[in-house]
Specification:
heterodimer, A: 6 helices, 13% strand, B: 8-stranded mixed beta sheet, 6-stranded parallel beta sheet, 16 helices
């Protein structure tokens, strides 16, 4: 018992110390069609920090594709409700080089009927990786088991697959959510959630939060959870999870 | 009276035979169509015939038959074990016994035979037998060819005096089968009353993978020990017992062991068969232990991009087998989910630090705070033992590593580190630029095209543990400047048989991601980590020439590893020239290395005469010296020892080659070589017909006769 108390104290100290080595994410600035996630980012960080050993930075700086600033970040976030317009050749080239050098991009579709942005995502992904299509992630994809085991859709909507991805080598440098897992964090002035999650309600919101957390963890662990050492545990848990549904 | 035979022989070459034929055919044609009288044509025909005949340079030989002594070739094996005693309790060596036998039989043999005496060994020793010629051969199979090529001798019978040791590993050469068929092998030291026990052969793989079991089969032969109890033991290089079997001896016995390679490279094992604790025969084997894959344990205390990028790199290398653990949650985290909803597994601390640690070659600790997991000194001690025994440890910094991770509080850990830690938490959120220092890692990078200028282009690392300084013996290969002072960014030190590298800056991923916009540093990240890991496993070498001894399936070889100017294994087309010499007894002999495979040149040796020996090799690439290496040997004086012969090998060789095998005990009692005197013809006289007066007169007479007939016929 004494040991556990000491360990807990040490862990708290450790978390405090760890504040100086943070996980920095930037948001792609592609114009007013992409309001982003800056307003909810602190809640996201708080959620991730409470549940995992990952400590994201509180701030979500904006970077645009006209400079090389994206290369200072390991992960980029892009959340839009409308098409931000076609990217110019140099922006596309820069983004492609970033992703091919190990960078990671999470794209969130904010719009319930967001066909326009959805088209933009597919078109842009195809320009970035002409040999690869954006496609739904398989149930064995590492992003669905990087922290939580995810087996159903989450987010504000339940329109598209759980997640979609573009694969390059053994990793997926682009992960795309059609179900809006950013707006689920928005709150009104009374502290209640601004948007309902349809049709699943709060369960769907929680799953959406978990999916976002998984995406953050996936960006820093890659296919770690596909290592053989994890498989017996994960398969057993998946059986329980699927059997419970 | 001896009979004399007369024979005409022709001395002209092919050209004159042709000319003679053409002259005769053309002459006959001309005569046929000629309108001169037949009588004259007859004269001209005979003249033509004689002229054509003389063009063939006819020689008249007178021959007489004589009898000749058959040639007997005595060939003594003068290699290492022949200098040992022929049997226990005697003062004579096997060579000594041969000399004794020769001295007492030489006169008798010389009367009956044309005696030729040879001895073979790697290097000549002119004092070994008076009047004997040396055959420079290390292998019994090479003797016939060298004998015939060097001395042009093909005797009617050859007698090999050998104990059969240093048996060849080559396949039997069928090309000189006629030589072997007229050979008698005499087994030196083969006495029926002598009891012996010997390790005949050890079968083992020439290489094996680390950590994997290796089967070694030992073939023991003995005489006069049937039913006795013996012990067969296998020992490591330091004499430590690896395994032991009790045996009941019989003439032929095979016993097997299973051993494991402990470290990459040549692993030496001594196999000894003993009776009542006394080793009766000992043989040494070397197994080249290779890493099938470098096994890496990567333990990360907290996920970050450094982990993600480095893990991707490690996974991309086929030669690396990676097991990684990343601590994704803290004990204080509140997950609010059922266990089945979380993809986390328990942290197997016992398995990692105690049970399975020896299976790894490299342990990477990344931003790992032992206190966070209540990992005590037992585990750290196990990590220390792991490194001391030859494995490697790489510690990547972070805000939970080094002083910020309380490493200084563990005396063992603090002692292991190549750096001195500060008393206070040392992680600082600063941007630093890497500066290289001369070291094999940076040397490798330089060879790969990443020099000081590349380092200037590298993006700054963000966040670093700042050390107080380096310990004695530490080699720094990267540094950074902070507050006007140089600090360690990468350093390494030997610890026991292993090595420890510290990299306090956990953001080398920034080098990788910026390769996208900085073509000058393209590929740097992968090469940097390749260099670090290869250095840790000992696989990195900047030395282009390496000379070493190895034993491969009973063959004793001296090998030269040679890298070309791009550090790739040199091929036989790389313009490599090797000048190698062996030095023994104040003499120098040239040694020929042959190309075995890319990067490897080999020469086979068998033990030479007792004493200190050395071998030097100078390697040139396109005429430029790229390395000179020396290897020293010592062969023990065995003249006072008894080394049983390998009579089974000789008997089997005799059987395969159509030769005969006779034990020396039987041979010395008198052996009939069953060779009869040969009959040979000698030339008594030789007469060149071209210059003979008889032919001159015949031609003159023919010409005169033709003139007379022509006159009578009214032609003149």
């Amino acid at each position: 018992m004494k040991g556990k108390i000491i360990l807990t104290v040490l862990l708290c100290l450790n978390v405090a110390m760890a504040a100086s080595q943070k996980f920095e994410v930037a948001e792609l600035n592609l114009g007013p069609q992409c309001p982003g996630a800056a307003d909810v980012y602190k809640d996201i960080v708080s959620y991730i920090s409470r549940k995992t050993s990952l400590i994201p930075s509180d701030t979500l700086p904006k970077v645009d594709l006209s400079t090389d600033a994206i290369f200072n970040y390991g992960m980029l976030l892009l959340s839009c409700n409308l098409s931000p317009g076609s990217l110019d050749y140099f922006s596309l080239l820069r983004l492609r080089k970033y992703l091919m050098s190990g960078g990671f991009l999470f794209i969130n579709n904010l719009s319930p009927a967001g066909e326009e942005f959805d088209d933009w995502v597919r078109r842009t992904a195809n320009l970035l990786f002409p040999m690869e299509n954006i496609r739904p992630v398989s149930e064995k994809h590492a992003v669905l088991r990087s922290f939580f085991l995810i087996n159903k859709r989450g987010g504000r909507f339940s329109i598209g697959p759980i997640l979609e991805s573009v694969n390059y080598g053994t990793k997926s440098p682009i992960i795309y959510s059609r179900n809006d897992i950013i707006s689920i964090w928005r709150k009104d002035s009374t502290g209640g959630y601004l948007y309902p999650c349809l049709p699943g309600g709060e369960d769907q919101r929680e799953i959406g939060k978990r999916i976002l957390l998984n995406i953050f963890i996936y960006s820093v662990t890659g296919t770690y959870k596909l290592d053989a050492v994890h498989q017996p545990y994960i398969i057993r848990k998946m059986r329980i999870l699927n059997g419970g549904n | 009276m001896e009979e004399i035979r007369r024979v005409i022989s022709f001395g002209s070459g092919d050209f004159f035979i042709f000319v003679s034929f053409i002259v005769f055919v053309l002459g006959c044609g001309a005569l046929k169509f000629s309108k001169i009288p037949v009588k004259i044509r007859l004269f001209r025909f005979f003249t033509l015939l004689i002229f054509s005949f003389l063009l063939l340079s006819p020689v008249l030989l007178k021959k007489r038959e004589i009898s000749k002594k058959p040639v007997l070739g005595l060939i003594l094996d003068a290699r290492y074990s022949m200098h040992s005693k022929e049997k226990p309790g005697t003062r004579f060596t096997k060579i000594g016994v041969f000399k004794k036998w020769l001295d007492s039989n030489r006169e008798k043999l010389e009367k009956k035979y044309d005696l030729k005496i040879f001895y073979f060994s790697a290097f000549g020793d002119e004092h070994i037998i008076e009047g004997a010629k040396h055959i420079a051969a290390d292998d019994i199979y090479d003797v016939p060819e060298k004998l015939i090529v060097n001395y042009g001798i093909n005797a009617d019978k050859f007698v090999f005096f050998t104990d059969g040791n240093n048996a060849t590993t080559k396949n039997f050469p069928h090309v000189l089968s006629q030589f072997w068929k007229k050979t008698v092998f005499v087994g030196m030291g083969d006495y029926p009353e002598v009891r012996w026990i010997r390790i005949e052969k050890i079968a083992y793989p020439s290489f094996a993978f680390m950590h994997m079991p290796v089967k070694i089969s030992v073939h023991i032969t003995s005489r006069g020990h049937d039913g006795e109890r013996a012990t067969l033991g296998i020992f490591d290089e330091s004499g430590g017992k690896v395994s032991e079997h009790a045996l009941e001896l019989s003439e032929n016995l095979i016993s097997s062991f299973t051993v494991r390679g402990r470290a990459p490279g040549e692993n030496i094992f001594d196999v000894c068969v003993s009776i009542n604790g006394k080793c009766k025969d000992r043989k040494r084997i070397a197994i080249d232990i290779k890493r099938e894959k470098t096994r890496v344990m990567y333990l990360c205390g907290r996920p970050d991009f450094e982990y993600s990028f480095l893990r991707d790199y490690l996974k991309s290398r086929e030669s690396i087998e990676l097991i990684s653990f990343n601590i994704l949650r803290d004990a204080a985290d509140v997950i609010n989910a059922r266990d089945a909803e979380i993809a986390l597994i328990p942290f197997p601390v016992n398995e990692i630090f105690l049970k399975d640690i020896s299976l790894f070659d490299i342990f990477i600790l990344h931003n790992f705070d032992f206190r966070r997991f209540n990992i005590g000194q037992t585990y750290i001690k196990s990590l220390e033992t792991f490194v001391k025994e030859g494995a490697s440890l790489l510690i990547i910094g972070g805000n939970a590593a080094f002083s910020s991770g309380g490493y200084g509080k563990s005396a063992i850990l603090a002692n292991m580190l190549p750096v001195v830690l500060s008393a206070k938490p040392d992680y600082r959120d600063v941007k630093v630029k890497a500066k290289p220092f001369p070291h094999p890692v940076t040397g490798f990078l330089k060879k790969a095209g990443y020099d000081e200028k590349t380092f200037e282009k590298l993006p700054r690392l963000e966040g670093v543990n700042v050390f107080v300084g380096a310990k004695k013996g530490t080699r720094i290969f990267l540094s950074f400047k902070l507050d006007g002072q140089e600090h360690i960014l990468a350093a390494e030190k030997k610890y026991g048989k292993g090595r420890i590298i510290v990299l306090p800056g956990p953001s080398t991923w920034r080098w990788k991601i910026k390769e996208g916009i900085l073509p000058q540093i393209s590929g740097f990240y992968d090469k940097f980590w390749q260099a670090v890991l290869d250095y840790l496993t000992g696989e990195m070498t900047l030395e282009r020439v390496k000379l070493f001894y190895r034993s491969d399936k009973g063959k004793h070889e001296v090998c030269l590893k040679v890298l070309d100017k791009f550090l790739n294994p040199a091929t036989d087309k790389s313009g490599i020239k090797i000048n190698a010499f062996a030095f023994h007894d104040g003499r120098k002999e040239k040694i020929n290395f042959t190309f075995a495979k890319p990067g490897l040149f080999v020469t086979e040796i068998s033990p030479w005469r007792a004493g200190k020996r050395s071998l030097t090799a100078s390697v040139y690439e396109s005429g430029r010296l790229i390395g000179r290496k020396k290897l020293k040997f010592k062969f023990a004086d065995i003249s006072g020892k008894y080394i049983p012969g390998n009579f089974a090998f000789i008997a089997s060789l005799a059987e395969r080659s159509g030769a005969k095998y006779v034990p020396f005990s039987k041979f010395q009692r008198g052996y009939e070589f069953q060779m009869k005197e040969k009959v040979a013809e000698i030339i008594v006289s030789k007469k060149d017909l071209l210059s003979s007066a008889a032919f001159f007169i015949i031609i003159i007479m023919l010409m005169a006769g033709e003139w007379i007939v022509a006159r009578l016929c009214g032609y003149l």
